[in-house]
Amino acid sequence: MLDTILAPDMRSFEWHPRWARREQVGAFKDGEGNFFFAWFCRHGAVVRGFDHESKMSPFRKDPPEIWPGMFEGLPKSLAYATKEPAFALDEITFCFWAVGSDGDWTLGNAGKLPKGKDVDGAESLLGCFGKDFHRWANAYYGVEIDAAALSRVWWGRRPIDWETLEALNVDFDERAVREEAELLDWPLDLSKRDRPAEKVKVVDAEPTRRVANDEAIESFGSAEFVVRCEPTRVVLRVHDKNVAVSRENVYEELFDLVRSRLEGR
Fold first, then answer.
1. Could you tell me if residue 53 is left (phi over 0), alpha (psi between -120 and 50 degrees) or otherwise beta?
2. Residue 23 scores a pLDDT above 60
3. What's this model's pTM, rounded to 2 decimal places?
4. Quick one: 214 exposed, middle or buried, by C-beta within 10 A (0-12, 13-18, 19+)?
């Protein structure tokens, strides 16, 4: 929910409350190839993640090989977490699970681990569950987040109102907030909006250039652009604004293209 408010165009968190009957799935993807999935079912829960820079990456070998013992001891009742393609099965550097609802987490017998700190990437990727979420969120989103508004959502799960939304992000996407709240059954209280009318910002129109067929093409002048590839969409951003969004998965295609160019092929 916070992700929807703070970064509606650059989402990192997902939550699927109705993944299957009596199953739920959460996910975090940092946009740099690192992620984790958390699968919950009536038999327990499994958390699995991937840090592409980890020494335990399956891609340390050719062909790729999952670190020995990663799933050793995983009960058959939770084996689904090793078979679901949506969990990026070939990409894993850590995995742990809990049976039933007792809350005791178990790691596989991974044997001898590489030397170093956070060798599997779990500490970094699961940082959002640390004791100081406020500090983590400030660092991750790159802004100073209003502590009181954050607590109302993060700790209190209170109904979200206009004051909370604007304290967290004055440029929040109301439609995205409403859609996510409906998905999560999160209470909203947006009946009142006590604030002055918004000022309309007037800016000079950007120039256009023309091509031979006289078709006008928008020009953004001198600007950096960012292409963000996600599993379900591609977003083109210019001047920190979305210019185009396409609902398709071209991540692997673009990755292979860039790699081939860098390798001179």
1. alpha
2. yes
3. 0.69
4. exposed
